[in-house]
Amino acid sequence: MLQQVNGHSSGSDAHGGESLREDLQEFLGGEAPLHQLDDLTKVNPVTLETVLRCLQARYTADTFYTNAGCTLVALNPFKPIPQLYSPELMQEYHAAPQPQKLKPHIFTVGEQTYRSVKSLIEPVNQSVVVSGESGAGKTWTSRCLMKFYAVVAASPTSWENHKIAERIEQRILNSNPVMEAFGNACTLRNNNSSRFGKFIQLQLNRQLMGSSLLVPRAQQMTGAAVQTYLLEKTRVACQASSERNFHIFYQICKGASADERLQWHLPEGAAFSWLPNPERTLEEDCFEVTREAMLLLGIDAPTQNNIFQALAGLLHLGNTRFADSEDEAQPCPLMDGAECSVRTSASLLRLPEDPLLETLRIRTIRAGRRQQVFRKPCSRAECDTRRDCLAKLVYARLFDWLVSVINSSICADPDSWTTFIGLLDVYGFESFPTNSLEQLCINYANEKLQQHFVAHYLRAQQEEYTAEGLEWSTVSYQDNQTCLDLIEGSPISICSLINEDPIPPELTRLLQQSQDPLLKVLFPADPEEKSQEEPSGQSRAPVLTVVSKFKASLEQLLQVLHSTTPHYIRCIKPNSQGRAQMFHQEEVLSQLEACGLVETIHISAAGFPIRVSHRNFLERYELLRRLCPGAAASPHGPPPDEGRSEWSPHSEQATLQALLQDILHTLPALARAPAEATPAPVHCGRTKVFMTDSTLELLERGRAQVLEQCARCIQGGWRRHRGRKQERQRRAAVLIQAAVRSWLTRKHIQRLHAAATVIKRAWQEWRIRMAFLASEELDGVEEQHSSQVTCSPSSFPLPQAQTRLLGAVTRFWPLGLVLANAAVGACGFRRKLVVFACLPLPVGSLSSYTVQTAQEQAGVTSIRALPQVSRVTGWPSCQDGSRSLTPHRGGQGAEPRGHSRSRTGAVRRAS
Ligand SMILES: Nc1ncnc2c1ncn2[C@@H]1O[C@H](COP(=O)(O)OP(=O)(O)OP(=O)(O)O)[C@@H](O)[C@H]1O
C-alpha cells in the first residue's frame, strides 16, 4: 500500500498510521480535511485551537511540514524517513519552476533562498533562522539544508571547478561530526543536543553563464565560515543527573586502542567523576567518524593524539578531590587517591605538578597602589571551582581553536565570493529545576531572535502598511521588548547586575607554562595580556565577562541578520519523549504560543507579503502594458527619470499612478481560471506596491508571456532578415554562375567554330583532291572496262551490283573513309556497317566485301572496300594480283612513300 510522507508518496506500509488517522477523522467529525491544508493561513478561523488541530491532523497523516505565511513549521517526525531527504527530492525542488507550489518542505525554503541570492541583479544575502526548543529538530534541519545546498550549488561550469566545489562541500559537511562531537551532549531533552549556537555562512560566488545578463547565473559554493556562540562549557565539569558530558569524552574512553589507552591513562572500565552514565551507549559515540572527519579537515594524527591526550588530562583533573582544611592558613589537603590523579593530569597536560596544585589551592590577590601580592589559601569549594574553571578554560579554548581550524579549512578567499546564505541554529529555550548562567544566556539569545522576528515581520509590516496608507486593522501581538529590557537594558538590568567571578589570571599563567604543543598554541604567552592582567596604575581595562562577551556577539549576529533577507523555520517538538506518532497537544500548544505563530498567521493571511517599490515595479512590469491594446499607446509615457528636471513631484506621482493602474488592469487578462479573474489582492501604497504571492505569480506569468512574444517577434524579424539575406546571396550566386556558364559556352562555341572551319577547309581541300584522284582512277577503270568489254563482252557481263558499287565508290567513299577512321565512334561490325552505309552497297552481299581500316594496319590510314568480283560477280581473278579482291597489306607492294593511288579508288597515306 502506498503511504504518503509529507505529502510525498512512499512505498512503505501504512498500517501504523491508519488507525490513528481514522481516530482523528472521527474526532474531526466530518470537517474539512485539515491535513490537506498546506498553509495555516487557510485555516478558518485562525485560532490556536484550529492551528493545533491542523498540525495534529497533518502529523497523523505523516505530513511534517506546513507553511504558516512567512514561516515554515517543521514537526519532528522522530523517525527516520530517508525518502523525505533524498537527493532525488532535492533535485525535484531545485528543478521545479515554482517550488512554493510543491508540498511544503525545508527544500522549498532552501531553493527560495538560493534563487533569491542568485537571480536578483543586486545580490541580497539570505539567512535562514531555524528556531525551536531543544530536541525540536533544528540541527537536523540545518544539516539537511547544508546537504541541499551542497547538491544544488555544485558548479556546472567546468570539471575542475566542480571538483573544488565538491571538496569544499565535503569539508563543510565534515565539520558537522567534529563540531557535534565536541559541542553536543546527551541531555534529558535530546540525545544529541547542541550545547552551542552556530551561524554558518555558506559563501557563494557568481558566475555568468553567458555574456548576456538574461542568461541565468551559476551560483557555486566556494566556502563557508562558522561562527559559534556560547559553548556550554560548564558541562565539562558539571552535568545534571541523567545527562552526559560532551560526546568526545565518551568517544575517547570507548573507542581508544590499547596503545592509546596506555598513553592516555584511560584503562578499560576506569571511573571518572566527570564522565557520568558511561554505560549508556549512543549512536553519537563514534570515535572513528570524528577522527576521520578531523583528518579530512586537516587535523593530522599527531595533533589529534595531542588533543585526546589533553582531554584525558582533563578527565583526570576531574578526579582531583579536595578535603576541608583544618587550618584556614593552610591549603586544602587532597583526598585519598587524588594525588595520583593530579600527577597523571599534570603529566598529560605537561604542566609542572607543584605549581598546578598550588594554583588550584592558593589564590593570589593584588592590592594596594603598589599592587602588592597576597597569597591566600582557598576553601575546599573554591578549590573545586578553580579546578572546574581550569578545565572549562582549556576546553573552551580547544573548542574555539577547532572552530578556527575548521574555518581555515573551509573559508574561501574574501575575493572569491559575492553572496552568502546564513544558517542560524541556536539552542532553544531551556528551563531546568536548577539553571545556570548559560541557561540565562541561551534564553536571552532566543528572546533576541524572537525580537528580531517581531521587529522584522510583525511590527515592521504593520507599521509599513499604516505608513503607506493601506486600510489595515492592526493585529495585536506579543512583543518581547520588555523582557529584553529586563535582561540587557540600561542602566539597570540583569546583565549589568551580574558580576560574574572572571577567570583567575593565575590559571591562565599556569597554562602558559605547559610544555604541551597544543596548550602552547591555546595559551600563548602574550605580553599584552600580561600587562592587562597586571596593571601598574589606575587605568584598568574593563573586564570582559561571559555575559558581556555573549551580548556583544549577539549584537553582531543581529546586525548580520538585519543585513539579510530572513526566512524562518520553526521546529516543533510533538512530544518530549522523542517518540514517533505521538502528538501531545499541551506541549505543542506551549511552543506555538511561545513563538507567536498565530499572530504570524493572522498577519500573513491578511497581509501582503510582497512589497515592491514603484520604480522597481514599473521597471519589471511596464512591458505588461503591451497586453492592453490601448494602454501601450496611452499618453503616460515612460516612467519618470530622476535626471529629468521637467518632472514635478505631482506630475510624476500622477503619471506613476496612471502607469501602475495600467499595469494592474492587465491582471484580469492574465488569469487563466475564472477564480483567478476575481480582483487580485494588490494595493498601491504611497511608495510601494503591496501584493500577495498569487498576484506576484500572475504578474510574473504575464511578464513571461510578453517576453515570449517579444522573443518570437525578434526571432521572426531575425529569420526574415536572414531569409532576405540568403535570397540575395542565392540570386547573386545564380547570376555569377550564369555569367560564367555563358562565357564558357561562348568560348567553347568559338573553339568549335574554329575547329569546324579547319575541318571544313581541310575537307574541301581533301574532297577536291580525292575527286580529282577518283576521276583519274575512274578514267582508268572505264578505259579498262571498255577494253574488256571490247575484248570479250559475252564472257564478262557487268552485273547491276557492280555498276552500283562503282557509283557508290565514286560518290561516297571519302565519307566512309573519314567515318571508319574516326578516333572514336563505331568499331567492328558497326564500322563495317557505317562504311557500307556510306558506300551504299547491296545489303544482301555484306560478306562479299572486305573492309580494311587504318586501325587494322599499323601506321596507315586507309580504307579499302575491294569488291570480290570473283566470288560475288564471278569476275576472274587477276593473274598479277593488281586487281586482287583480297585485303591489301599496308606497306605491301612497291607503292611509293606518301600518297599513292590504289586501283579501287581508296587512298592510303603513310602515317
Ligand atoms: N526531520 C527529522 N526526521 C527524523 N528525525 C528527526 C528529524 N528532526 C529531528 N529528528 C530527531 O530528533 C532529534 C533531535 O533533533 P535535533 O538534534 O536536530 O534537535 P535540536 O532542535 O537541534 O536540539 P538542540 O537544541 O538540543 O540541539 C534528532 O536526533 C533526530 O533523532
Automatic annotation (TrEMBL):
Recorded GO CC terms: cytoplasm; membrane; myosin complex
GO aspect biological process, one term: actin filament organization
Keywords: Actin-binding, ATP-binding, Motor protein, Myosin, Nucleotide-binding
Domain Myosin motor: start-end pairs: 35-704
Region (Disordered): 632-651, 874-911
Region (Actin-binding): 554-576
Source taxon at top rank: Eukaryota
Compositionally biased residues, Basic and acidic residues: 639-649
Binding-site positions, ATP: G132, E133, S134, G135, A136, G137, K138, T139
Molecular function via GO: actin filament binding; ATP binding; microfilament motor activity
ATP-binding found in the keyword field: yes
Family: Belongs to the TRAFAC class myosin-kinesin ATPase superfamily. Myosin family.
UniProt-recorded name of the protein: Unconventional myosin-XIX isoform X6
Origin species: Balaenoptera musculus (Blue whale)
Chain's gene name: MYO19
